[in-house]
Structure formats: structure tokens, C-alpha cells
Design a protein that fits this description.
Elements: H1 12-37, H2 42-50, H3 69-82, H4 84-103, H5 106-113, E1 119-122, E2 138-141, E3 146-156, E4 164-169, E5 179-184, E6 190-192, E7 207-217, E8 221-222, H6 228-265, E9 267-268, E10 273-274, H7 279-308, H8 313-338, H9 340-344, H10 350-357, H11 367-378
Parallel strand pairs: 1-4
Antiparallel strand pairs: 2-3, 3-7, 4-5, 5-8, 6-7, 9-10
Helix pairs in contact: 1-2, 1-3, 3-4, 3-6, 4-6, 6-7, 6-8, 6-10, 7-8, 8-10, 8-11
Bound molecules: flavin-adenine dinucleotide (FAD).
């Protein structure tokens, strides 16, 4: 796994202020409606683009902010606490941008940096499901300079909304298991193949997509034919795993803060006491706080491992999404119980975040897959069967 050295170029204070402004004026006020209607959070994304935050991880030479993974994690964490759908769209955009930055054309890199282009990952497939490392979709030569893509993708965040898709297929001609392509929206033969009516993240537009003879130039390959898995694992995966942990942490923090506020302001009138003055509720709240702080510390250590190129960076990166995703499900369930009927109704926003918090553990690599990877790395085994044989 390559080291992701922080570039530290972005002006963190300016970016943080711009983010809070967009959250306060657009994303926060629209979050409830995005959840209830399932509408794609277009206005918030456009405002993030104008604020330079869609170009946060783009290189300065392309016009981007040159921000590091820690800066991106901060953005995703803050967004997730307010609007999970927007956070998921931005998370996928940053992970796909990392691949485009490494292998993509300058004009697309510049459009992303300018906040005018949203991209995403189209990895998961109907056939191989969460096993994204084993695409079944194909790329076949179509004349001398083009390829024909045929695929049934099961989930693509921002499907039909993004400007491009970082798309996996089996290799065109080379050995290996995967080739990556940059597929522009509007490519003939590309279709959104269904609606999204999910439990949570209801505005993230994670819909199935198909490619039926979608024709792309051979220059649309990201990296080398057959080298897609290596690129995905070394470039996109660290972004995806770390930012997914930040996403879970944002939900945990928001849930913990909301639960604490509820306990402090809600009274048992017959006792003349707040809920926070009840020892059992107080202890339950403490468990939420501890779990959230544990995940924050783990994410911080993961970023430190990456920043220093520490020997355990790969292990930490694999661990952090599992730690955070399970923590988020636990804290969300705990907040639902602690806030009682007030949480069960929609008045606190706890119920929405509870639903949003259940996504990360089933997003690939799922917690189960990560446990297998972590076991393999810890036991000195290759990540995938057949490697190194
Ligand atoms: C909100 C949301 C947004 C998404 N956005 C995208 C996106 O933008 N791009 C994209 O490519 N994908 C996306 N996905 C898809 C995601 O990454 C997973 O591929 C998908 O959630 C897996 O669902 P499935 O039913 O196919 O899982 P399955 O593969 O059927 O797995 C079901 C369960 O079985 C477990 N399991 C599977 N295989 C094993 C195994 N070998 N050992 C032990 N347990 C196993 C899994 O851990 C999981 O708990 C998104 C998913 C969600 C929920």
C-alpha cells in the first residue's frame, strides 16, 4: 500500500469556515427534506463546489485545494453529522477523484478542482455483489481505438447525477482481474437501471446502472489494462476506508451530542429532575461518549500512521472502517434507546441518523470482508487467494 503523505497545502481555517457556512445555510436546513423525499442534494453539492470543497483533494497544479486525507475526513465527518446523503456523495467523489488525480486526463481533473464536476465509484456488481475485487462486467475491443463496456452495476452513488463514473471491468486484453475506466455521464449505452428507496442515506442516489455496449475511447483507461485492482487497492481504498470511518464518526458525534442535549433539557416533572440526573441514563450516555471518542482516537491514529508512513499503516486503514462502522451502529442503537419515544418519532433527528448509520457496515469492503483482510494481514497471508502463488 502506498503512503499517503499529507500535503498540507489547503488552508484549513478557510476551508473549515466555508464548510460551516454551507452547512448552516443550505445542507443543514435541507437535510430533513432530502431524507423524507429522497431528493439528490444538488443545491448543497453546488454550494460545496463554489466553496472549493469538491476540489479539496485535487492537486493545486490542477487548480484544486491540495488538501490531504485528514482535511477530507474533516469535511466528510462534518457533513455526515448533518446530512448523511450529502456526506456519502462527497465521500464517493473524493475516493473516485483520488484515482482520477493519479491516472485521469487534465481537463477532468481541472473540472473537479473547479467544483464543476462530481464523480463516483461504479464498482459493485449484480454478479459478484460486495466482492468488488472480482468484476464480471466486460470490456471488449471495438475497433482500434475504442472499447465496449457491458455491465450490471448493483449500486452507484450519484447514479444519473454524477458527471463521470470510475468504472471497473474485467481487463480488455491483459492478465489480471480488473481494469478501471473513466466513463463520462451521457455515454451512449449507459443506463440508470432502477430507483433508490433505501432505509437511510435516502438522497444519495445509489441506484443500479447498466452498460450495454457503452463505447469509450481506449484513452479512458485509468492506469494500465489489468492493473485496476492494484490501483483500486492502493489509491481509492485508503480514501474510501478512512473517509467511511470519518462518515461513521460524524454520525456518532451528532448522535451523542443530540442524546446528551436531550438528557439535559428533558425533565421528569414529578421528580423535579432532568433525565441527565438519572444515574442509569447518565451511564448509558457515558457509553455513547466513550465509544465515539474511541473511534475518534482510532481515526486519528490511522491518519497519523498514514502521515508518517508507519509500518502498521495498512493494518490501521483496513481496521478503521470496521471499527467505525460497527461503532456507529452501536451508538445509533444506544441513542435510539436512550432518547426513547422522542427518538422513535422524528422530532430529534436521531431516527434519521440511526438509519444512516447502518449503511457503512454493508458497504464494500463490508465489515465481514475487512475482518477477513485484517486476519490475513495479521497472519502474514496475502489479501486475496492466489496472490503470491
Ligand atoms: C448507501 C450505499 C451506497 C453505495 N454506494 C456504492 C457506490 O457508490 N459504488 C459501489 O460500487 N458500490 C456502492 N454500494 C454497494 C456496496 O459497496 C456493497 O457492494 C453492497 O452494499 C453490498 O450489498 P449486497 O447485498 O450485494 O451484499 P452481499 O455481497 O450479498 O453481502 C451480504 C452480507 O454477506 C456478507 N458477506 C459477503 N461475502 C462474505 C464472505 N465471503 N464472508 C463473510 N461474509 C460475507 C457481507 O459482509 C454482508 O454483510 C453502496 C451501498 C450502499 C448501502
Amino acid at each position: 500500500m502506498t503512503t499517503l503523505s499529507p500535503t498540507g497545502v489547503a488552508d484549513d481555517a478557510d476551508d473549515a469556515a466555508a464548510l460551516e457556512s454551507v452547512i448552516d445555510t443550505i445542507i443543514g436546513p435541507q437535510a430533513g427534506e432530502v431524507d423524507s423525499t429522497g431528493a439528490y442534494p444538488r443545491a448543497g453539492l453546488q454550494a460545496l463546489g463554489r466553496a472549493g470543497l469538491l476540489g479539496l483533494v485535487s492537486a493545486t497544479e490542477a487548480g484544486g485545494r491540495g488538501g490531504d486525507l485528514a482535511a477530507a475526513a474533516h469535511v466528510v465527518e462534518r457533513l455526515a453529522g448533518v446530512c448523511g446523503s450529502t456526506a456519502m456523495v462527497v465521500l464517493m467523489h473524493y475516493a473516485a477523484t483520488a484515482l482520477i488525480e493519479a491516472h485521469g486526463p487534465k481537463d477532468v481533473r481541472e473540472a473537479i478542482a473547479a467544483g464543476e464536476h462530481v464523480t463516483t465509484l461504479a464498482f459493485s456488481e449484480v454478479g459478484s455483489r460486495s466482492h468488488f475485487w472480482a468484476p464480471l462486467s466486460t470490456a471488449t475491443a471495438d475497433g482500434g481505438a475504442a472499447a465496449r463496456l457491458d455491465a450490471r452495476k448493483s449500486w452507484v452513488t450519484s447514479a444519473g447525477e454524477a458527471d463521470s463514473y470510475v468504472w471497473s471491468s474485467r481487463p480488455l486484453a491483459a492478465a489480471g482481474t480488473m481494469t478501471l475506466w473513466l466513463v463520462p455521464a451521457g455515454t451512449a449505452g449507459l443506463h440508470v437501471a432502477g430507483a433508490f428507496d433505501g432505509l437511510g442515506l435516502r438522497g444519495n442516489g445509489s441506484r443500479p446502472m447498466t452498460a450495454d455496449g457503452a463505447r469509450v475511447p481506449l484513452s479512458a483507461v485509468l492506469g494500465d489494462d489489468g492493473a485496476g485492482l492494484e490501483s483500486a487497492m492502493t489509491t481509492a481504498l485508503p480514501y474510501f476506508l478512512v473517509l467511511s470511518a470519518a462518515f461513521s464518526l460524524g454520525l456518532m458525534e451528532a448522535l451523542t451530542v443530540e442524546a446528551g442535549a436531550h438528557l439535559s433539557r428533558t425533565r421528569l416533572a414529578h421528580l423535579g429532575q432532568t433525565l441527565a440526573e438519572q444515574p442509569v441514563q447518565r451511564a448509558a450516555y457515558a457509553r455513547l461518549r466513550i465509544r465515539t471518542d474511541q473511534v475518534r482516537a482510532f481515526l486519528g491514529d490511522t491518519l497519523a500512521a498514514l502521515g508518517a508512513g508507519r509500518q502498521d499503516e495498512m493494518l490501521r486503514v483496513l481496521e478503521v472502517k470496521a471499527v467505525a462502522a460497527e461503532g456507529a451502529a452501536e451508538v445509533a442503537d444506544g441513542a435510539m434507546r436512550l432518547c426513547g419515544g422522542s427518538a422513535f418519532r422524528k422530532e430529534l433527528g436521531v431516527e434519521r441518523r440511526f438509519r444512516d448509520a447502518l449503511a457503512a457496515r454493508v458497504m464494500a469492503p463490508t465489515t465481514d470482508a475487512l475482518h477477513d483482510f485484517i486476519g490475513r494481514v495479521s497472519c502474514g497471508l496475502p489479501l486475496f487467494d492466489g496472490e503470491g502463488t
